[in-house]
Write a structure and sequence with these properties.
InterPro entries: SRA1/Sec31, Steroid_recept_RNA_1. This protein has about 210 residues and is mainly α. About 50% of the residues lie in helices and about 0% in strands.
């Protein structure tokens, strides 16, 4: 304890009596300050109307009692942009369904040319899926989109656009696997075999009757 908080000696006590501390000196000098942990928190005050007084911070977050948010107009619905094809040609193509003959002619034309150089077993393995493809087409088990994409594939095969035909084949396997998985393996093999033909043989592929 600092000596400045000790009172001057009392003449009535002996020399070895403990010193007497001055509370007034400690209070005036700010010594021995402690945090008051038992400070009472005041309860919310009530007005005459019975509503509790809120602090400014709470009042900004909480809307006044009795005021509801404005109702939404039921006639105003979220606008949804209609999905329209980016190319009007797609709509025309879907309205006009191609014939199975137009699709099968280039496919079988390429297969007949492949028979001159490709093993018979491989060609037979290609022909069986093509027949299944035709049966599913005629029995109505193929969607219009699959039919149109197969028509484009056959035309690309006829025009020797191997990459384009192979791209359509991969797209059909991804987008319509349930419809094409049973026979698309034959189309894939046909594209690979036709790609490997000599240029002279490819020319006859576009004219199977020659």
């Amino acid at each position: 304890m600092s000596d400045r908080f000790v009172k001057p000696g009392n003449q009535e006590h002996g020399w070895n009596d403990p010193p007497q501390f001055s509370y007034g000196l400690q209070k005036d000098s700010g010594g021995l300050k402690r945090n008051l942990l038992n400070k009472r928190v005041h309860a919310p005050q009530f007005t005459d109307s019975g509503s509790d007084m809120q602090s400014p911070a709470v009042a900004k977050l909480t809307p006044p009692r009795g005021m509801n948010p404005p109702p939404m107009d039921s006639s105003t619905q979220p606008s949804v942009c209609p999905k329209t094809p980016s190319d009007g040609k797609i709509v025309v193509e879907l309205q006009t369904e191609p014939s199975i003959e137009d699709v099968q002619e280039p496919l079988y034309g390429a297969l007949n040319v492949c028979r001159h150089t490709v093993k018979k077993q491989i060609c037979d393995d290609v022909e069986r899926p093509l027949k299944l493809f035709e049966d599913m087409w005629r029995s109505g088990k193929l969607s219009p989109l699959v039919k149109h994409r197969m028509h484009r594939l056959s035309q690309d095969l006829k025009s020797k656009k191997w990459d384009a035909a192979d791209e359509i084949h991969r797209g059909l396997m991804v987008d319509h696997v349930a419809e094409v998985s049973q026979w698309m393996v034959g189309v894939k093999r046909l594209i690979a075999e036709a790609r490997s033909l000599n240029p002279e043989q490819v020319i006859s592929c576009t004219h199977p009757g020659s």
